Amino acid sequence: MERRVSDLEVRAAVLENKGKVSENRISDLEVEVKYHGRLLFKMQGATLVLVIVMPILIEYLSS
């Protein structure tokens, strides 16, 4: 999935499993954020879950 808003580009992808059989699909996720073609950050796997999902979960649980 790729979206472009003005000069901000966000790409989310599911990485190939590299021949391993894995039940943990979280480790196969990757997100890139670019601004004017320059990479701002790139997250993969558990880091992605901690940075994006946890704040949403905390907000949901605290309401």
SSE diagram, text form:
Layout: E1 2-5, E2 8-14, E3 29-35, E4 38-44, H1 46-62
Antiparallel strand pairs: 1-2, 2-3, 3-4
Describe this structure in words.
The chain has one domain. The chain has a four-stranded antiparallel beta sheet with strand order 1-2-3-4, with helices on one face. The termini are far apart. The chain has one helix spanning 46-62; strands spanning 2-5, 8-14, 29-35, 38-44. With 63 residues, the protein is α+β, with helices and mostly antiparallel strands. The chain has one helix and four strands; from the N terminus they run ββββα. The protein is 27% helix and 40% strand. Strand 1 (2-5) and strand 2 form a beta hairpin.
Spell out the helices and strands N to C: EEEEH
Domain module count: 1
| Structural class determined from secondary elements | alpha+beta
Please indicate the percent range of residues in DSSP E strands (runs of 2 or more): 35-45%
- Given as residue ranges, the uncertain stretches (5+ residues, pLDDT < 50) are none
- Radius of gyration equals 14 Å
Number of strands: 4
General shape? flat
